[in-house]
Here is the input.
Amino acid sequence: LRAAEEAIVPQHSMEALGVHTHWGLSPALDLTDVHKRAVASKPAAAETPEAPDSFLLVHCADPRHYLKTLSRRLRASKTPAEVFMWEPSAEAMVRSLALVGIALDFSMPVRQRAHMFLEVFGNVKVRDKTAKYLDALGKSIEELVCDKTGRLTAAVDPSQLSYRDVDSVAEAARMLSYRVPFDMETCWDHRLRHHYGERFDFRVNVIDWDFQEHVRPVAGLIHPLLFRAWRKTGLAFEFGDETYTQPNRTMASYALGRERGLSKLVRGYWGDVVASPYWATGTCVEVPPEADVGPAAHRAASSMFAVNNRHAGAEQFRHNAAEVAVLGILSLLTEIETAARYTMAKAHDIYSGLGGSRAAGSGAGPGGDDAGSPDEEAGPRTMDGAEVAPIGKKSASETAAEAAEGMTPREAAAAAVAALPMAPERSAERRRNALVARSVRRARAAASAIRSVRLVPLLGDIDRLLSHSRNRHRFSGAVIGCRSAQLLERPALAACLRPRAFVVQEAARNIVVFKQHQKDEFERRAVLMAGSLGLVFAGSDRTVAGTDKFAAGSVIDARPRAAKEADQRKREAALEEDKAAAAGAGDHAAGILYLRGLAHWDERRGDNPRPEALVFEWDEAAAPARAEAIGKGPAGRAIREVMLQTQAELQAKEDAARRAAKAAAAGESGEAEPAAAGPAAAASQRPVRAGAGAAWARGGAGSKVRRLKTEGGEAAASSQGAASGDEQGAAGGAAEPVAEAASGNGMGEDAGGAAATSLD
Here is the structure.
């Protein structure tokens, strides 16, 4: 079992992700909208409509879900909500609170705030100015958790932290001090050298392979130059001609190690060095409906996904993930501050919505605050303040004179006074008053948004927190990071959910060092574990995204039309077969249909991007029957059949590729590979798995038995060679019945049960 687990999730892959996660691997979600689309359409009788929403974030690595929910909460509901954010370490919690502090620092202009947020979010080195700002922010976080004072108290409630957790967070916050030394450049270099090993000198080739195989097919917005630069230097977001010389101390953390036989905590960079922060911020942005913002703003937002030279052999996205990330953060921060959508006034210009532009579809800038100010309403004037009318139009004084006809003397005098040119002092006063009024409106909108969603940090043992009596039936929904997927099979998770709730599980799609079958296996096991708890598959992040648009791949399908049509017919036939297989699965039919569809997913279809998170629905009344259907019913058998069949096909492909490589090597050396003789040898060419063993046997002349590496790092033992004909026949005869029993749909009862047990 240990070897089988390592075959699915290799240790070197998890090492590349780091001990601590600094960013998520999926775009941000509006939790209020997810709850509305997933479960709120059919509320349970035990719940009241006035009950405030409470959401749980487990190991999401950053506050992106909280900020998006905060920015859009007032769109759907006026009732307050709570977001409980759990992180495994105090350093990760301090980093999340620092990002929240930057986002809610309204003393900075929104553009500067967005740049600093992304700088701290994705760069291992920051500007000197940013490092000093983090120094002051660390003191604010320490005041928050220790004294419950400071500017973050309006948004963050630290009352759920124990005294031990308060001490840990305060100590981690003090590590943000500008005077604390930290050599980020050396730590980053050590992580790269440990990850690449002997391939360090050729790491550019490894980076290019990861990009072409795992990034470009699913997210063409991530430019190869950006991805390569981050993998080499750790800088994901660079603005202008700024220099980044100071270490980003929010990424410093402790990991347990050994030195001279003694355990010790080592401070360094223990984060991700392969996936990049673009998946969390740079692949998704809102494209508001035309009916809400007008055609011009809708086209401007859609222009961020424009593709040049489409179907011409050199297609490329016009914009990249860094620009999309800036637009996404600008949208969140602007809506928090103004309670209105951020709309671009000009296509392909992400900053065109700033500064009170009136060219947007609604005729106003962000939030409408800048529209209607005196300096925009007034036309051009002469040096003495007199108004100059445009050609073909009448001035305000002429219009007032015409309007004075038929008025009483008092009304005519008032109209004449209003038409007089305004003195420069009066105009400046009006501008100041308008600025103050706009600032008041922004402050009120920001205060309303902050009061609408309260952030509650959590630390400690997650199982103990979930099973606590105060958290029973508390959460309307939960979002679980991919590093904590094991919670899907914990009864404590079900106990803390309300009678109707949702659970979002982050997938492993964007872990670039995983192979495709490992990513698929992650989702299959997630669906199986969730089903055993009583959850049912309800869709993906694509189905609950609302107005958000996701980046698709940029791989060109250059095959002939006949080949494309043949593949389309094959997919349609496979879909009908999948529907027939899932027909008797009841509530789990959607999950089985999704899992079976993974086998024939076509990455060349730009309109069919792979989901990055799975959404499950929880119904307390139906949960026992759903769990029993997975354990003993047809739904569980169907899911296990998909898993067994997929692993058998995968091993068959690997064996075929190994034989082809061996034949090619033999051809180059001038030696022909001996052909396998007899039905026993033919049967032994198929993958064989005996019970829970860790060996895959492949017989025939020149047979080789390989054992997978164990977790302790033992060398893989292999034996090749000169077995006698009787021994080969015995091996082939023993392998043939097991292979026949475990292959395809003709799976025998004993072999199928043993294989299912080994997978479980």
